[in-house]
Predict the structure.
Amino acid sequence: MATLVKTTQDGRKLEVTGLAITLGGKLEANELIEVKDHPYRRAIWSAVPEATHMAGRVPLTHEEAEIVLAAFKRAEADMLANPIAIHERFRIAAMMKAREQGIE
């Protein structure tokens, strides 16, 4: 189930589905970055002064970021209650570790 965060000016919906943030149904990000830690923070703040977080290319206010974080917490809790989801996360983690080591 997707959680609506906001609708952009061009009408696309920014939603949280599981541990993914989607924009118009396509993956935009899987984490939030605080604007104060972003390499383009000055440009972001000059364009959107109230932005506190970035979800990929989309600036978010504090309230919108709280919606995303709450949805992430719910998704994490749902995953931890599901043995199949836990197995899948371990499989993905092992695959990523193997890629880091050059094993494919």
Notes: The mean pLDDT is 92. The longest strand covers residues 2-7. Residues 88 and 94 are 10 Å apart (CA to CA).
